[in-house]
Design goal:
Layout (H helix, E strand, L loop, with lengths): L14 H4 L5 H5 L3 H19 L4 H7 L4 H19 L2 H8 L1 H20 L4 H29 L4 H27 L5 H20 L13 H5 L3 H23 L1 H10 L5 H31 L1 H20 L5 H29 L4 H29 L4 H19 L14 H12 L2
Helix pairs in contact: 3-8, 3-9, 3-10, 4-5, 5-8, 5-17, 6-7, 7-8, 7-10, 8-9, 9-14, 9-19, 12-16, 12-17, 12-18, 14-15, 14-16, 14-19, 15-16, 15-18, 16-19
């Protein structure tokens, strides 16, 4: 997704400038236009986890089953996945700034409409429109922030990475805080914040040269590349497990609290997933680069996938213990942060395809895995046992490992060179855009 930074709309900085080691001065000494995009990006990433704490409340207050409530993730992710295959082409047709603004308008409109919705089916449909807007925005935001930066691109990427981490962590917390007032409040809050971001970008971001033309089928054709196809298959099974943890876990948490005679509530769920988001951000930025350098990319991927499979298996047996579930969710964030970054860095090294095209193809496929998970988890739990979705996720993680092992012969080029600081930061931001 964010690999579109290679198609930045303004004149490219010199190679020495692009690959200079990022510093705090590079990251935070930026023009107002860069800060405007960073603010909008933070809110956009907040929107991913925003609905998590309010899923049980939506289920209860709108007389919907947990399966129906979790479809808020499915509709959002499915449309995001489909749109990802074509966002680089769309931006090349109308320009990066217009793509950003159209994405923000869609998010504002559909989030505001969701705040006034009267039924869960209506919210599911509106979340699909929200997903389209988010795909357009996040697929071009890094390109815009690099194009508008005043210094080395590495500094702008670090700022974007910071915005991502803050957004991923604060999204569930804000959802919990506003959701404790009403399930409608998080949607309304997102619409207001994104409207501010829209105005800031409209006023502060200069008109750019149109990016190089991209074929509308470029991302789909890229999947014929054996290395990219291997990693896409690895990602689709991995993301099934990722979104099983993210979308399904609020319901076992609520059930565990109810079994003790209490109520976990939106604030409690938001607090747990705030810890999850902080853990994910820390390991993606600080731990993943260390592990991939010491162990190598493929060994890191296989190790973390194995640990995630063990964690999911443990969660399947921890349904009655709220402390155990909370602990395992936060530990899951630590592992997911490493996995996201390592997998995306592998994608960036594995092919000679343009990074924007490879990233669009990879992101589209992996989001499909995320879209399927919530649609299956609810009905499976209702038909069998509360721990069954985690058991299924354990199986998909094993399949993810098998895809990687079977296709390893196509990944011979991985690990033969190290990314520059700017490219490594880009891998982190791309990987963390869940």
């Amino acid at each position: 997704m964010t690999a579109h930074a290679t198609e930045a709309p303004t004149a490219a900085p010199s190679a020495a400038t692009q690959h200079a080691a990022p510093t705090l001065r590079d990251a935070f000494h930026q023009p107002k236009s860069v800060w405007a995009i960073a603010f909008a990006a933070t809110v956009s990433f907040m929107g991913i986890g925003l609905v998590d704490p309010i899923l049980p409340a939506i289920s209860t207050q709108l007389d919907a089953s947990p399966s129906q409530a979790m479809l808020l993730f499915t509709s959002y992710l499915f449309i995001t996945a489909i749109a990802m295959f074509f966002t680089s082409w769309f931006a090349s047709k109308i320009g990066v700034k217009r793509t950003l603004l159209i994405g923000l308008v869609l998010i504002v409109a559909f989030a505001a409409l969701a705040a006034g919705a009267s039924g869960v089916e209506e919210i599911i449909g509106l979340r699909a429109g929200w997903g389209l807007g988010n795909a357009l925005f996040i697929s071009t935001a890094l390109a815009a922030i690099v194009g508008a930066t005043a210094g080395p691109s590495s500094g702008a990427i670090i700022l974007y990475e910071t915005a991502l981490g803050i957004g991923m962590a604060l999204g569930p917390l804000l959802g919990g805080l506003l959701g404790s007032v009403s399930w409608r409040a998080p949607f309304a809050g997102t619409a207001v914040l994104m409207a501010i971001g829209f105005l800031a970008i409209l006023v502060l971001l200069k008109k750019e040269d149109r990016p190089a033309h991209v074929s509308p089928l470029a991302a789909l054709k890229a999947l014929s590349h054996p290395a990219l196809r291997t990693l896409a298959l690895t990602a689709i099974f991995y993301n099934f497990a990722f979104f099983t943890l993210l979308a399904y876990s609020p319901f076992p948490l609520e059930a565990a609290a109810a079994a003790k005679g209490g109520e976990f509530g939106a604030m409690g769920i938001g607090g747990v997933f705030f810890g999850w988001g902080v853990a994910l951000a820390i390991t993606s930025v600080f731990v993943a680069p260390i592990l991939t350098r010491k162990l190598g990319l493929i060994p890191t991927l296989l190790t973390v996938l194995g640990l995630l499979a063990v964690l999911m298996l443990a969660m399947s047996f921890a349904q009655a213990s709220m402390p155990a579930l909370i602990t395992l969710i936060v530990i899951g964030g630590l592992l997911l942060g490493v996995m996201n970054t390592a997998l995306t860095e592998t994608v960036m090294e594995a092919t000679d395809l343009p990074r924007g095209v490879a990233s669009s193809a990879y992101s589209g496929v992996r989001f499909l895995g995320g879209a399927i998970a919530p649609a299956i988890a609810g009905p499976l739990a209702a038909a069998t046992a509360p721990g069954a979705p985690y058991l299924l996720a354990t199986g998909t993680l094993v399949l993810s490992m098998l895809m990687l092992v079977i296709g390893r012969r196509h990944l011979a080029s991985v690990g033969q060179h190290h990314l520059s600081p700017a490219e490594e930061a880009e891998a982190i931001t791309t990987g963390d855009e869940v």
